[in-house]
TrEMBL record, chain A:
Species the sequence originates in: Paractinoplanes deccanensis
Keywords noted in UniProt: Oxidoreductase
Pfam families xrefs: adh_short_C2
UniProt domain Ketoreductase: residue ranges: 4-206
Protein's name in the database: 3-oxoacyl-ACP reductase
PROSITE patterns: ADH_SHORT
Database matches in PANTHER family: OXIDOREDUCTASE, SHORT-CHAIN DEHYDROGENASE/REDUCTASE FAMILY (AFU_ORTHOLOGUE AFUA_5G02870), SHORT-CHAIN DEHYDROGENASE_REDUCTASE FAMILY PROTEIN
SMART domains registered for this protein in UniProt: PKS_KR
Family indicated by similarity: Belongs to the short-chain dehydrogenases/reductases (SDR) family.
Record lineage: Bacteria, Bacillati, Actinomycetota, Actinomycetes, Micromonosporales
From TrEMBL, chain B:
Protein name: Acyl carrier protein
Matches recorded under InterPro entries: ACP-like_sf (IPR036736), PP-bd_ACP (IPR009081)
Domain Carrier: 5-67
Coiled coil: none
Annotated source species: Paractinoplanes deccanensis
Length: 245, 81
């Protein structure tokens, strides 16, 4: 068993998978979560084989508190502690405020906001037993900057940034660091809804003139979880290539 | 050491009480040392002592020493001496 154990939610694809891969590369043992069973099982098997780490997995809707409960129990049974937590599971929906139905509003907050709280709440006591424990939550650059057509999504991700800031103060005395990252436009499934024109517009809004890659975000997350960030907590860090919104 | 004695020790340790302090009638927030911060420390101490992971609902409901006995029973800890 390696020195550190991490739980990553939403690890089946995109930023979550890239982060899990980065941590496995660094020797972390993992508990991985995915919404569906097959995809996360495949990621766990791949990382275990490639990097020789323990990679356990569980699946379920992160908006259901039972899912995070099962993940925490799995981490407890396997490692008795957590050294790192990445709260990445999320959902996206765009739409003008007046055109967003009740179910979409409830779903965005249930997954992005409440799901993050359930996960962090459950993991906190295992993190308190960890070595140099650290948490990274995934917010969004739209939360701090605002963007037309994503008011509800932005609000749900703003809750995540607020959670990081307050949890950092509450958990800091136990030695647990809590930070958040705000990705900009990252080439993941969440951007699949954009047509070519929309994609070009997003690139034009980005100072570095490209979409971000999941690995761009994963590298920052891995840094925030590492000893190199040992005096960094309560921060919300943009990973957006210089986005102007 | 019996399970009951282990639980008493866990309470005394987590709440920073004297070694001979009676704890069987302790209730949350009745004792000045058992506040919300100490409660989280108490839960962690109990979890370590009995090697269990206590659900959030049970953490919230653990409002007395006797309630702790009842809750831990659900996790297979037997307090019958």
């Amino acid at each position: 068993m390696s020195d550190r154990a991490a739980l990553v939610t939403g690890a089946s694809r995109g930023i979550g998978k890239a982060t899990a891969t980065k941590l496995a590369e660094r020797g972390y043992d993992l508990v991985l979560h995915g919404h569906g069973a097959d995809a996360v099982a495949a990621v766990a098997a791949e990382l275990s084989e490639k990097f020789g780490v323990t990679a356990l997995h569980a699946h379920g809707d992160i908006a259901d508190p039972a899912t995070s409960k099962a993940l925490i129990q799995l981490a407890f049974q396997s490692f008795k502690r957590l050294d790192a937590l990445v709260v990445n599971a999320g959902t996206h929906a765009a739409g003008m405020l007046g055109m967003t139905d009740d179910a979409t509003i409830e779903r965005l907050f249930a997954v992005n906001a409440a799901g993050a709280v359930y996960t962090l709440r459950g993991a906190a006591r295992l993190l308190a037993r960890g070595k140099d424990p650290a948490v990274v939550l995934l917010s969004s650059i739209t939360a701090s900057r605002g963007i037309a057509g994503q008011a509800v999504y932005s609000a749900s991700k703003g809750a995540v940034a607020a959670l990081a800031r307050s949890a950092a103060k509450e958990l800091g005395p136990q030695g647990i660091r809590v930070n958040a990252v705000e990705p900009g436009f990252i080439r993941t499934d969440m951007l699949d809804t954009l047509d070519e024109k929309g994609r070009e517009e997003r690139i034009g809004d980005t100072a570095l003139r490209r979409l971000g890659e999941a690995e761009d975000v994963a590298d920052v997350i891995a840094f925030l979880l590492s000893d190199q960030a040992r005096f960094v907590t309560g921060q919300v860090i943009g990973v957006d290539g210089g986005l102007k919104l | 050491m019996s399970e009951l004695q282990r639980l008493r020790e866990a309470f005394r340790t987590a709440l920073d009480l004297p070694a001979d302090a009676p704890v069987d009638d302790l209730r949350y927030q009745d004792n000045e040392k058992w506040d919300s911060l100490a409660h989280m420390s108490l839960v962690a101490t109990i979890e370590d002592e009995f090697s269990v992971m206590i659900d959030t609902d049970d953490v919230i409901n653990m409002s007395s020493f006797q309630e702790a006995i009842s809750i831990l029973g659900k996790y297979g800890i037997n307090f019958n001496e």
